[in-house]
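Readers of this paper often ask what the protein records in our data store actually look like. Nothing more is needed to write down the fold, since each code stands for a local backbone conformation. Below, we set out a record of this kind in full and without editing:
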Amino acid sequence: MTPVTTPTELRLAKRMARLGTETAFETLAKARALEAQGKSIIHLEIGEPDFDTPTNVIDAGIDAIHKGYTHYTPSAGLPALRETVAAEVTRTHGVPVTAEEVVIVPGGKPTIYFTFTALVEEGDEVIYPNPGFPIYESLINFTGAKPVPLQMREEKDFRLDPNELADLITDRTKLIVLNSPHNPTGSVVTEQDVKDIAAAIGDRDIMVLSDEIYSRLIFEGRHHSLMSLPGWRDRVIMLDGWSKTYAMTGWRVGWLIGPTDAITAATTNKVAAIRRNLVTHHGGSMQGIQPEGRCFAPPAGKDGNACHLLPAQCKHEIL
């Protein structure tokens, strides 16, 4: 056998040049290094609560491990957890959701990747908020689609402008990304905004990815979702999870909800198929919290009594 003497060149696929990133974690590492030196740091770089996962959630996770939730699970998630998510979203959004339409995913980013990969082709246009979560633009570019930024303007309190959205929609628009409450500005769409967004899109063959990961961190008014409007249930893919509300960012557990009708139900199935090719399933012990009924349960408040708000809201009220 002739030995190889000429060094080989690693040739990356061209699409890798289109892949961006987010710098928040790099900044976080620098901030942690300063903290290790004894300096006091106010963290504005990373999207997570400034307190640990509530004790009742930690206890449920440990209990799930002891009870044997350490094996393979169905790729889309434990049926009991999917049923609980479906019931919760049915309650909060006022539209029927079934367990079959729920896919449990490791955090929020997989939903973005799965959705873009399943729906967007080279040359399609994807409208997304700018400023916004950097991964939107990065993955749009990665798929070969054209990113079309929708400016979030200070004079409108950084709320999405439905008129500007309407002006950006073309025959090549395939997907629109909505994010409310918005990262990073904190703006929240109103009920009228949601209706105006629906009117701007109209009956065009356009899907919407609705990133609602901060939906339970609203201290005035309530959350409004395009999914809740009549006729829009099957045109929206919903991204949500436990990370922000329950200070569970390190647990990496979220969910995706897809369309229901006979034609677009394939979207959820194909997204699940992409997941199976990339990630076998999510951690059983993390999903195993749900069977004990603590999936959406409130934690204990400051005085040990039940807090009727969600964890991050409890912190807000205590302060």
